[in-house]
Amino acid sequence: VYIHDLYGMRVERTDGTELGVVETVYELPQGLGLDVKLAAGGSAILPWRPEVVRDVDAARRVLVVEPPPGLLD
Asked: What was the pLDDT predicted at 41?
């Protein structure tokens, strides 16, 4: 998947719960940061790491993630 493909992708937790939509992608020195507009309101930046982004379904335009503990609290 290319960076420009990530914009507008839905974001779901590994249990299928809808989390939000990717609004912006930041290319930071430590890696990519996904700015996700949360369905519950507000936003969160998720790091693009294998332990966080578990799957990318390009056909469905869905990212499956497991946010680090405390990130969304």
From this structure: 94
Amino acid 28: pLDDT? 94
Q: Which two tokens stand for residue 19?
A: 């989390």
- Over range 2-10, report the average pLDDT: 96
Closest by CA to 20, choosing from 58, 55, 64, 51, is: 64
Are 47 and 65 in contact, with CB atoms under 8 Å apart?
A: no
23 with 37: CB under 8 angstroms? Answer: yes
Q: To the nearest 10°, report the CA torsion of 19, 22, 23, 25.
A: 130
Q: Could you give the C-alpha distances from 10 to 29, 30, 32, in angstroms and in order? A: 25, 23, 17
